[in-house]
Amino acid sequence: MERILRGIMRYRVLDRASMVKQFQEVRDNPVPKAIFYTCMDSRMIPTRFTETSVGDMFVVRNAGNLIPHSEHFVDEMTSCEPAGLELSCIVNDIRHVIVCGHSDCKAMNLLYKLKSKEESNIEQRRISPLKSWLCTHGKTSLNKFLQMNGDFAKPMLFTAETPQRKFVAYIDPENKFCIEDKLSQVNTLQQLQNVASYGMLKKRLEKHDLHIHALWFDIYTGDIFYFSRRAKRFIIIDESTYECILAEIRRYYS
């Protein structure tokens, strides 16, 4: 708390005036362009590595950047994640849903361990809210990952905006990342399928009026990857790839 209080005092001196000015500019007409789902990991600061500012996007964070599939809600959608989809996509009419995973994700590291029945049994889930959350909403990602049997030269198939629209993904074809990071990438792509499961988004997704994207952040290099459906893999966003990725986005997601 001492550090936070010192930070607030520093903010008052250095940043408060400029932020108040930005708040005033968007007060009566905020126009966020996206909703950004990412992990609650303290190393993830999405507004910093995307250079976004006040009013640019909604941000929802949880353990493992999970978006529960709609099948988990029978009568009511009692969860922050679908509520965020409604607030952003329905109430505020944004056009882009972004899911961003990352390397060395503690939630994904634990999810990988939960393949063990000893770690994921009902007794464990009752005493650990984190294990219960991951077993409930990360199980599809884990099962899809385990079906690969460690052979990531094979393609994976994900459902996209509609059940008829699917995309192929090759996970870490250059084998740069550890097994848990591969799971993190699979999990990030699975969330796109989960987003598309909500009936309230169906018409906009079918009309290409709402778009879903996947990013992945490498904690230790600071590199950010975009999942390119054209390339069928996560591609680093840098000076050599920017124009190509931008062209894909303008062609398919504008």
TrEMBL record:
Gene3D superfamilies given in the database record: Carbonic anhydrase
CC cofactor note: Binds 1 zinc ion per subunit.
MF terms (GO), sorted A to Z: carbonate dehydratase activity; zinc ion binding
Tagged with keyword Transport: no
Cofactor: Zn(2+)
Source superkingdom: Eukaryota
Pfam families cross-referenced by the UniProt entry: Pro_CA (PF00484)
InterPro entries on file: Carbonic_anhydrase, Carbonic_anhydrase_sf
Enzyme class: lyase
Coiled coil: none
Catalytic activity: hydrogencarbonate + H(+) = CO2 + H2O
EC number(s) stated in the UniProt entry for this protein: 4.2.1.1
UniProt keywords, alphabetically: Lyase, Metal-binding, Zinc
Entry function: Reversible hydration of carbon dioxide.
Family: Belongs to the beta-class carbonic anhydrase family.
Protein name per the record: Carbonic anhydrase
Gene: LOC106116965
